[in-house]
Write a structure and sequence with these properties.
Blueprint: H1 5-16, H2 20-34, E1 39-43, E2 52-56, H3 57-63, H4 65-82, E3 91-94, H5 102-111, E4 116-119, H6 125-139
Parallel strand pairs: 3-4
Antiparallel strand pairs: 1-2
Length: 140
């Protein structure tokens, strides 16, 4: 009695064949690919035979606009709490995979427009920073 029974069958297949983690991984890979490409095709034959979904960066950015706005708002709140004007920030260090998303990158840069961009290792610098911090705490 579902409005879209084919979608229910797809979900049931993912559950029955236990491919939810594979689906999550493919979604993450598509997100990463959309950081470098305007369009990506995501093949999902384990969801439905022959299923290929065409994705666009523009649609992804529309879908994540609220989260991007929250990141920019957090930057502004941090600056306000610190009593530091955005114009005083000279360097913006970008790290983590999310900073590779063009709309997130643009929102961060617009928040501190005079800062030069410095990039860390997208996949390793967060873990490295946490490791260094843990070492400081353990020895402090």
């Amino acid at each position: 009695m579902a409005a879209q029974p084919a979608m229910v069958h797809r979900l049931a297949r993912v559950i029955r064949e236990r491919t939810g983690h594979q689906l999550a991984g493919d979604v993450e890979a598509a997100k990463i690919a959309l950081s470098d490409a305007a369009h990506v095709a995501m093949a999902l034959p384990y969801v439905d035979d022959g299923l290929v979904i065409q994705l666009s960066r523009a649609a992804f950015e529309r879908a994540t606009r609220g989260e991007t706005e929250k990141i920019a708002a957090s930057i502004h709140a941090c600056l306000n709490q610190a009593g530091v004007p955005a114009s005083a920030i000279t360097t913006l260090f970008l790290t983590g995979g999310t900073s590779a998303i063009p709309s997130v990158r643009a929102a961060c840069q617009a928040s501190v427009p005079h800062a030069r961009l410095v990039e860390g290792d997208r996949f390793g610098s967060v873990g490295l920073g946490l490791t260094i911090h843990a070492g400081v705490r353990a020895n402090g």
